[in-house]
Amino acid sequence: MKFLSKYSKMERRDFPFIALLLAFPIAQVLIFFFYVNASSFLLAFQDVTGKFSLDTLKLVFEGFIRNNDFQNNPLFTMLWHSVVIWICSNVVCTLVNVFTCYMLTKHMVGSTFFRAVFAIPGLVGVVVFSTIMKQLYGYSGPITQMALKMGLSDNAVLRGGLLASDSTAFQTLIIQSIVYGIAGGNMIVAGAYMRIPNEIFESSKLDGCGFFRETFQIAVPCAWSTISTMLVFSLCHFFTADLSFYMYSNGLGNHNMTSVTFALYKLQVTISETSGANEILYNYVSALGICITAITIPVVIFGRKILSKMGEDVQF
Amino acid sequence: MQLKKQLIKFKNKSLGVKIVLVLFFLFFAVEVFCHLFPMFFAINNSLKTAEEIYESKLALTTTWNFRNYIDVFDKFKIQGGIYFETMLWNSIWITMLYLFSNLMSSMLVAYALARFNFPGRKFLFGFMIFIQVIPIIGAGAASWKLKYALGMINNPATIWISWAAGFDYSAFILYGTFSSISKSYTESAKIDGAGNFRILGKIILPMAFPAIVALFVTNFVGQWNNYEVSQLVLNKFPNLAYGLYIFQMPAIWSNAGENIFYTVLVVSMIPGIVLYLSMQKLIIKNISVGGLKG
Which domain holds residue B37? Predict the structure, then answer.
């Protein structure tokens, strides 16, 4: 075994232990990642009888180009919604968090209190949070009343509340995602700032470095590896970003509360509720997934390349 | 004391910086209001009678009806006659089973990749990153089909195997923690005759304990609030999150009363908030992400 010769005797002695450590996780990943994804890929190219067929993919593809009327095309609308959500709740919020987290961690009185409060929506969970917010968005709720006072026209459609109208539901949830996303509660970015040694800031002050220079030329570059990693992770959600539409629309996806994730989840719920009786759904979910994956992967690779050129990892 | 220090620091800053800091403070104050108001709204209504809520949801409670928190055991029920305590118990065991299987598997992967040199190590590390950054969408149906074929649906004895994903985000975090522990500890333990199991159990795990606890807490919060698991694979075992999703439809809670509806909301958010707030510093210190280079 020639390839083993590059490992020392001590390292080779550990091989049985390593095999023991990795045996279960590798078996698990082979079944629940490789097999599942391969099976999903095959399902996309099959019909309900299991024979090779491009019909399901055609069905998905036709869904995208139906009538060349992109504005009224449900699949295209879902994709568009996901991109808008991704830009607002991932990119904008992460970038604003870079500064708000820095201010909270290094310069703000009561930062522990602020951080604890800003973590609340994530802690209470999407079911509780969305249920409370739905009450607040009701017609008699304080948010709708405030929106009306701020100039939103009071019409019959709005009588059901902000989430019961095609013209306001999506926008309301986008604004909500920004309001709750930019506060600076991102604990991973906060952790990155906390780990920058204070000596770096102290010596920069001795060298006459001002507040803004400290922020933009020391703090942000030091935390850049974390920030860029988070942005790369968020790229994965380019076409699958969602604002818990399933919860806000009670599983209906009405009033423009639709996204690719919503559609896929709704189909999965149907599969589960019918114990997989409608076999075409397996094929359709897989085919739709493959189409979305195929257009997401180049975005992720391109985005990662750009981000890696934007800044070097700083070691300290 | 710290407040005094901060104020002295503030006084010594230039006017421009003072303005920026004041603006940020005001921004944070507004954000605090936005974050606390929904919670206050739910807590306030959970302490009212149904009649009080009917009169006004925004008015402060006058009755302080703490009895709602006892009544919730009798009145919070969903289809199939499933009551609050059953859903609470389901939440506890589903969360614990998920955390135990997932964290154990992630720990094994992270430990092997971070502390040993072996054939295929680079490939496995690359694979772990690949799973994080390359999205594979729409595999849910195939996954459900497999679980159904294996008899895992509504089967707590086997469903945990599908949750025990070792090459996931937790492994990525733990990899960083295990890598940061100096190799000299294990080398000297080996010289003293310690075996691999002993090194893992008595040296590495105690040193990585804060990071493991931090991951436990963050994953606990996520899993406690996960309604999808009950909706898709364990629908005979509805947890609190799923029960709440069902209960929030007015047709279901109308019999119990709107005060019970708000009380259920408050009760189900308590464990996550308490656990996180008691461990906040530990979590921020120990959960770090950075650099995708192997």
Answer: 2-75
Q: What's residue B28's pLDDT?
A: 94
Cβ atoms of A127 and B225 within 8 Å: the answer is yes
Average pLDDT of chain B?
89
Mark yes or no for CB contact A43/B245 under 8 Å: no
Q: A300 and chain B: CB distance < 8 Å anywhere?
A: yes
pLDDT in tens, B92-129: 999 999 999 999 999 999 999 999 999 999 999 999 98
Q: What is the pLDDT of residues A99-145, one digit of tens each?
A: 999 988 888 888 888 988 998 888 898 999 999 999 999 887 888 87
- B 129-158 → A contacts, CB under 8 A: 131-146, 148, 153
Judged by CB atoms closer than 8 Å, whether chains meet at A125 and B235 is answered as no
Is residue A78's pLDDT more than 60? yes
B291 belongs to a structural domain? no
Q: Quick one: B182 and B57 in the same domain?
A: no
pLDDT band of A265, cuts 50, 70, 90: very high
Looking at the domain covering A63-310, what would its CATH class be? mainly alpha
Answer yes or no: do B16 and B41 share one domain: yes
ipTM: 0.87
The pair phi, psi for residue A183, each rounded to 5°, is -65, -25
Instruction: Look up the CATH number of the domain holding residue B246.
Output: 1.10.3720.10
Domain boundary among B37, B60, B75: B75
| Cβ pair B105, A24 in contact under 8 A | yes
Final residue in a domain of this structure, among B32, B59, B75: B75
Q: Does residue B112 sit in the same domain as residue B218?
A: yes
Task: Please report which helix (H) or strand (E) contains residue A192, including its range.
Answer: helix A187-194
CA distance B141 to chain A (A): 5
* Residues from chain A contacting residue B280 (CB–CB below 8 Å): 112, 115-116, 119
* Side chain identity, residue A89: S
Same structural domain for residues B46 and B95? no
Taking CA–CA distances from B12, the nearest residue in chain A reads A211
| Residues B106 and B241 grouped into a single domain | yes
Question: Are B110 and B13 in a shared domain?
Answer: no
Straight-line distance from the first to the last Cα atom of chain B, in angstroms, rounded to the nearest whole number: 44
Task: Tell me: do B55 and B155 sit in the same domain.
Answer: no
Residues B251 and B211 reside in one and the same domain: yes
In chain B, how many domains are there?
2
Q: How far is the CA of A43 from the CAs of A260, A300, B61, B112, B136, in angstroms?
A: 19, 25, 56, 35, 14
